[in-house]
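Re-run with default settings, no changes from the original entry. Doing this only to confirm the output is reproducible before filing.
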Amino acid sequence: MALQAGSAGAVDPLCGEFAGVCSPPSEESQHVSSIPAVGSDTAHPHINKGHGYWALAIGSLGVVFGDIGTSPLYAFQVAMTQASRDQLRDNAVLGVVSLALWALLLVVTVKYVIFVMRADNKGEGGVLSLMALAQRALGRRTRAIFILGLIGASLFYGDAIITPAMSVLGAFQGMNDVPALHGIVSVREITLVSFILLVGFFIIQARGTARLATFFGPIMLVWFVTIAALGVTHIADAPGILAAVSPHYGVVFLIHHGLVGFLVLGSIFLTVTGAEALYADMGHFGRWPIQSSWLFFALPALALNYFGQGACALKALRWAHAHHHAFVNSDWFFVMAPPALRAPLVVLAVAASVIASQAVISGAYSLSQQAILLGILPRMTVTRTSETQSGQIYMPQVNRFLMIGVLVLVAAFQTADNLADAYGLAVTGTMLTTTILAYIVVRRMWKWPLWRAALLCTPLITLDVVFLAANGLKIASGGWLPLSLGLCLFMVMYTWVRGTQVLTDKTRRESVPVTELIEMLRARQPHRVPGTAIFLTSDPDTAPVALMHNLKHNKVLHEKNVIATVRIAETPRVGEANRVEISAFNADFRRLVIHYGFMETPNVPKALGLCRKQGLKFDIMATSFFLGRRSVVPAAQTAMPLWQDKLFIFLLKNGSNPTEFFKIPAGRVVELGAQVSV
């Protein structure tokens, strides 16, 4: 059976047949995907001038650049550790700095800022958004694109677990360079303090970040100014470091150092680990504010800091050679600061690392919400933490998963250096997935000729593959971690989609078309009761199980009967004018299709209020919502392996209550249960 990204008829056993909200439209109903999203419904209006534009640009410094902005805490030091495996010369330091600069220029600036950010889905970015865009570009569902989307999403969760641990540990390690704490603070104390901070950090997620978010931008503004100033003050220690702007030094370093150069390249990738956030968070701030913040502020600050760290290392290397001492690789970021200012710098670094963690965790919430609506994950509780910002949500199940994962990493690895080998592999995989999906959009949606698309994308894919191979050398020393996490999450998502499809096919085989049911009712009229009954289902053309059970056991039929389905479009948002679609079977039965984008939160009662404009009027307090709740058990002969069957049933049992998820008044819901085997 071919695997698809769910279908409009995908069964959600937690609420019987009503699973349309958990999956995108099927191939038979692709007209839903083409529903236009009005301009006012985009994730963020494109503000190109004035106070609003600069407010967005500053705000993006906190949310978008938090991860990549804190990479100087550990990236250069880790790269120099790898470079020290060979005998160090001046050209080696120049080579490391050159690789860092050109990674920022090629991966972040050229690939993401100039190219990938143009491939937006109605203003939204991210791997799942790009997956939906690529599917729309092809005009059909394909197994390959869907698998790519699952891989990218799985690896992103691995990044969301590693980033908080890496950033916080890297910031607190600066305590070793504070004169008053020298010799007092050990790895154990740093691990304990990081553990306590992260526990508190995850606990306060439930309260939302609306108030804290107002400080994110200004704090990161101070952070970038500080790291730029640190770099500028030390470039004079070895002005020759500025020659590293030439790619010649990076290429020569890789050629002359062989395997060590390849290992350094894997560590250099740590300088760009936050690049995916540029694309994923585009819907919150818009393309132009993010591009401006990067080109005119974040990139220069990072470049100056790496120049400064390189100059410090070059000066120390020359001193060691002159005095016949061994070169000691230090925590160059904190060493650049005057001793008296290192304690405040540690505090600022911790604040920046918390912001970086918040950015990636918020991204995990958004990705999870998209995955639920696209039918890739089972339903989970989504709580709004802001009355004004629709993008600020909290998901307790995801938060618990991330917290456990982060704390396990902190306890197991204890230092940022130990965790560095695990960091780059997940992000590299996500980036490669993004580039491949972007190529499909370039060819099929932008209609570029093959030679032009290949001229642009081939070097970018090659760059991603090289970084992936470089990080792949670290599988045994920590790279196995994101791969294991990604594989587990991939199997969870694959199992959910596969199991949902199996259950959908079984339900369709056993269902009765609504037109046939109407003919049966004409021959034998049931007892009619006043009011309106809304039957929630995934397929509006077949009789819902809840309706059949109501007729079978209660032997009644309401005066008005609405068969309602929620469909998820492949656009982030759907305009209110296109929200509902009503058609009539006959005087007693009507079909209602409610459309949502994959970035929206379904609210069935609110959508029903729009039905009045199309002639479907009813009193919500005299309306009953019928949901079919199925109890799923393993079948003797299942379409999936037994372990996968049990995993699917486990996911079903632990999903959120459909009444809460769809915002249906609990007092108006009638659930009719049945047992089904898969």
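The radius of gyration is 28 Å. The first helix runs from residue 50 to 63.
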